[in-house]
Amino acid sequence: MRLTVGSRVISAADLLIAAGIALLAGVVNSIAGGGSLILFPTLVALGLGTVAANVTN
Considering the entire predicted model, what is its pTM? Predict the structure, then answer.
């Protein structure tokens, strides 16, 4: 199943993973840049489409 932006079908575990990785990416961005290299593949792996993940990122 492919999730889209605004989809209400997402597990709590996926939300926790995304939030944790987003926090890590923010820390990496604030120190050295390049947090997108962590966040983008995670969003795609969690089922977000590539365009939506890129725009979100």
Answer: 0.68
